[in-house]
Amino acid sequence: MRRRRIYEGKGKVLFEGPEPGTLVQYFKDDATAFNNKKTGTITGKGVLNNRISEFIMSRLNDIGVPTHFMRRLNMREQLVREVEILPIEVVVRNVAAGSFAKRFGLDEGGRLPRSIIEYYYKSDALDDPLVTEEHITAMGWAATQDLDEIMQMALRVNDFLQGLFVGCGLSLVDFKLEFGRLWEDEEMRLVLADEISPDSCRLWDVESGERMDKDRFRRDLGGVEEAYQEVARRLGVLPEAGPLDLKGPKTVQ
């Protein structure tokens, strides 16, 4: 089926959906790090991230956290509501790692006194700079009440995910969220958008401390495909046939 491409990002493509107000989100195997400075392919990543994100978004919908997710369509695609994405990335940190550890001269692996929420302006050209609430409200990217709602949702997602992952023997170090405005009958509400997967979370094995996420790609640690498969296996969503490398849909420019 030929569909109109709406947007292509680093890890996904959005196509026109079957009904108004919907989009088809297609998960690619492309891998990027350091804002596209490092690129590669993780075979089967799209299939696994589709399954993992479906599982997590469905659970969040069940506990009353509104998301754009509607249903999975096939191995690599899911149907989502069309939203107006806010130009900010919301990062929740539980353990010092990555850029946070570097910024404050901390050793990686130290648990933070409490969960910390940071905001970054979505701009590859500017390397996604860290921004404050003052920047966000002054630039009109979101209002103060939006940020209050986002913070409450982010902390709720964090509580849920920490419990979910620790039950699988994984420590949720940090993760990135994106939010969008969903318009319904002239009313706007904020919903969780994008994906939640090993692409957007740092997950460390509780016993060994082994990294089970995209840091394996970022840091050339090897075993990237196996780590993603292991996360899916522990969550109980590893496809029976294995991560088949299906071809993407034909598109119309």
Automatic annotation (TrEMBL):
UniProt catalytic activity: 5-amino-1-(5-phospho-D-ribosyl)imidazole-4-carboxylate + L-aspartate + ATP = (2S)-2-[5-amino-1-(5-phospho-beta-D-ribosyl)imidazole-4-carboxamido]succinate + ADP + phosphate + 2 H(+)
Record-listed E.C. numbers: 6.3.2.6
Residue intervals of the SAICAR synthetase/ADE2 N-terminal domain: 6-234
Family in the record: Belongs to the SAICAR synthetase family.
Keyword flag ATP-binding: yes
Keywords: ATP-binding, Ligase, Nucleotide-binding, Purine biosynthesis
Highest taxon of the lineage: Bacteria
Name the UniProt record assigns to this protein: Phosphoribosylaminoimidazole-succinocarboxamide synthase
Nucleotide-binding listed as a keyword: yes
Biological source species: Rhodovibrio sodomensis
Pathway listed: Purine metabolism; IMP biosynthesis via de novo pathway; 5-amino-1-(5-phospho-D-ribosyl)imidazole-4-carboxamide from 5-amino-1-(5-phospho-D-ribosyl)imidazole-4-carboxylate: step 1/2
Pfam families associated with the record: SAICAR_synt (PF01259)
Record-linked NCBIfam families: purC (TIGR00081)
Xref: SUPFAM superfamilies: SAICAR synthase-like
